Amino acid sequence: MPTVRLHHLPNLITLSRIALVPVLILTLVDRHYGWAFAVFLIAGVSDALDGWLAKRLGVQSQFGAVLDPAADKLLLVTAYVMLTILDHIPFWLTLTVASRDVLIVGGYLLYTSHAGPVKMRPSIASKLNTLTQIGLVVLILAKQAAGINLPLLVTTMVYAVLATTIVMGAHYLWTWMVLKEFEP
Asked: What is the pLDDT of residue 183?
């Protein structure tokens, strides 16, 4: 039986997060919100664990640097699309979140095709945007799983996600087009 080398562990954890995406879809299609909440939390823990292990073991790689945010975006956009289909998140918000991600990926591909490889650094504001996006999903899944009704908090989070998503989309455009702040 082949053994898994320790330096592959962070990427295997990231791949397992990608494998959780269809599980999340199935639990949401069946409206098993408790299970969906658990799957989303496990994915979140795996995100923290893979990054921590990569740094701790000194096995950071270009493959992992691309795979990890791709797995994050796939999980988040899937959650937003499914929660929109189930009428828990407004379509316009999911469109905004997905458009920002398309902008980031498209900008990255366009920039690297013209300027060569580039190492991007997520800003504090970008991390805040991701945190608000995750927070909204967690709030809605918890609300549906436990029957807790907090409409003012949900509405506040919806608009916080909208605001941070728009600001960060503009920030990325500004960074790429004007400041060109990348790490070579």
From this structure: 46
